[in-house]
Amino acid sequence: MAIEQEVGKVIVGQQELVRQLLLTLLGGGNALLEGAPGLGKTMLINTLAQVIHCSFSRIQFTPDLMPADIVGTTMIAVDETNQRYFRFEAGPVFANIVLADEINRATPKTQSALLEAMQERKVTVSKTTYELERPFFVLATQNPLEIEGTYPLPEAQLDRFFFHIEVDFPPHDELVEIANRTTGAEETRPAIVTTGSTITAMQRLVRQVPIASRLTDYAVSLVEATHPQHPTAPDIVRRYVRYGASPRGLQAMIIGAKSMALLDNRHSIDHNDLQTTIFPALRHRLILNYEGQAEGITADEILAEVVRVVKRKS
User: Fold this and answer.
1) N or C: which end of the chain has fewer CB within 10 A?
2) CA-CA distance, 304 to 22, in Å (whole number)?
3) Which ranges constitute the DSSP H helices of the chain?
4) Burial 191-208 (b: 16+ CB within 10 A, else e)
């Protein structure tokens, strides 16, 4: 896809990361990126905004950030006749692509200011509701290494993220290319290959990609198997999972699979699409019990076993 090619001119490697971001964008959802500092998360998101020619804003989350710093506030202004009136000053959330950098550093009150924007594509300030321009795409980052001075996202807010994408450390050859690109005199600039209106049209097209009833049933079976009380749940789920994935996870998995088929120029999805999207769609929606946390079990290990145990629908 042209977007992936242009992003690749700036971002070295990370093809899977870029692909999952595009799946989230075309699915009309929001993404949570988790990775150590310095892996290019901010540069990737900024580059994506340039390539699709959309407005971009960055919000640096800190403990003293307030909700009004995100959504905006109502101010008293004076017109030409010296009459005072109330004027709404829009916050940085009024952009097509919003980077919520280190979202877990802000207090829960401030984190929740994004909930309405992420879910409803609206912002309510002083009893007035403002529509957000489409496409609207929130990409939040968090650092998994630091715990001091952070506020873990509550499960209700995590569930509103379409995908949870893990940013891995690049291999040796990609590190060499990163050094060559970023320490030289030349600066690579990506070209604009599409617009926000085209992305919005593609989001509508994704919904029209057909899915066979047996594949819908298979996706439902995968989600059901993440619940420890369900008869089809494997032993690892019964032992380590407290709560399984929500219906939002099912929706994200199917819409992500439809986006993948569209990007690959296929007219319908298959089992492999669902088995690929189950990880970013459900890994943040599994709540492990105390034993699972103590044993260091990861959500991906549990989901891999779910994929292995649940039989394909023929």
Assistant:
1) C
2) 23
3) 2-10, 15-26, 41-51, 68-71, 108-111, 115-120, 155-158, 172-182, 196-207, 213-224, 235-240, 247-263, 271-282, 290-295, 299-309
4) eebbebeebbebbeebee
196-207 and 15-26 are packed helices; what angle lies between their axes, rounded to 10 degrees?
80
Residue whose token pair is 């629908």: 313
Instruction: Name residue, tokens 């044993």.
Output: 295
Q: What is the reported pTM? A: 0.86
Read off the amino acid at residue 70: I
Distances (CA, A) of 85 to 64, 80, 81: 29, 11, 11
- Structure confidence by residue, pLDDT tens digits, 3-35: 777 777 777 777 788 888 889 999 989 999 887
Helices 271-282/213-224 angle, 10° precision: 30
**Cα separation of the two ends of the chain:** 31
Sign of the alpha-carbon torsion through 131, 132, 133, 137: negative
DSSP structure string for 140-156: EEE-SS--TT--PPPHH
Q: What is the DSSP letter of 82?
A: S
